[in-house]
Amino acid sequence: MITIKSRHEIKLMKTAGSIVAEVHEVMKEMVKPGISTLELDEKAEKIIKNNMAIPAFKGYHGFPGTICASVNQQVVHGIPAKDIILKEGDIISIDVGAVYKGLMGDSAVTLAVGKISDELKKLLEITEEALYAGIKEIIAGNKLYDTVSAAVEDKANEYGYGIVKNYGGHGIGRSLHEDPFVYNFRPGTPGPELKPGMAICIEPMFNLGTGNVHTEEDKWTVVTDDGKPSAHFEHTALVTDDGPLILTQI
Ligand code: MG
Ligand code: MG
Predict the structure, then answer these.
(1) How far, in Å, from the CA of 154 to the mean position of ligand 1?
(2) pLDDT tens, position by position, 51-103
(3) pLDDT confidence of residue 235
(4) Is residue 79 part of a domain?
(5) Centroid of ligand 2 to alpha carbon of 234 (angstroms)
(6) 2 in a structural domain
(7) Which of 65, 200, 212, 229 could serve as 225's disulfide partner, Cβ 3.0–4.6 Å?
């Protein structure tokens, strides 16, 4: 079922979203060669708790972290660890969710660690562009897959990136993952019609090589089959009468 948020719920989601955005601002400052992903995780948890919110991922199906920290060939769901130390030239996807008074915000960004190659810069730039191309289609009356999913797919195809098909975006509200599932490609059906009050997470995951991925032995970390790098960006966006509204911003 796709839920329609009340005005009150939207207000709380905006707060949850702004906390998530604050975490990302701090992460951007902290991500440097030499820092461990556990240090990032601990800081993210502090920020969320200082804002009277709860980390949405911690304990979700047993996930141990506040953030998902996915480095290079890791696509999503990387577990923060003190022995994962970032080094110059890496990229890291940081995904974070917060719950404020029962309502959720969820957003991800992929950051460069120091100087990265032009090839990686482009991957990050285009994956983020795909996110915004998708958000642009968060318009009442649009069929989700014909518009949002299609815009994301077109961006990957234009640059020849592999699209991760096993994972995608989702509805969000009182639960982290609600209907509908948001494909990052055209699944062959038009998809549900967008209505004001729906909140949708759009999260393209593009790879330099194949779109095929698998899960590592820790049962969480998703990596590319060919070991090539992957980028991931996400926002929570609301369908309104006046077009898309990004909730995960300050
Ligand atoms: Mg996320
Ligand atoms: Mg998400």
Answers:
(1) 22
(2) 999 999 999 999 999 999 999 999 999 999 999 999 999 999 999 999 999 99
(3) 98
(4) yes
(5) 7
(6) no
(7) 212
Bridge partner residues of 169 (DSSP): 182
Cα(72) to ligand 1 centroid in Å equals 17
Q: How far is the CA of 234 from the centre of ligand 1 (A)?
A: 6
CATH (domain of 125) = 3.90.230.10
Please give the mean pLDDT across all residues of the chain: 98
Question: Residue 159: which domain range?
Answer: 7-246
Residue at token pair 């707060």: 15
Mean pLDDT confidence for 120-125: 98
Measured CA to CA, the distance from residue 204 to residue 215 in angstroms comes to 18
CA of 172 to the centre of ligand 2 (A): 8
Number of domains in the chain: 1
Q: Tokens 């077009």: give the residue.
A: 243
* CA–centroid distance, residue 140 to ligand 2 (Å): 21
Quick check: helix, strand or coil at residue 185? coil
Asked if residue 40 lies in contact with residue 74, where contact means CB atoms within 8 angstroms, the answer is no
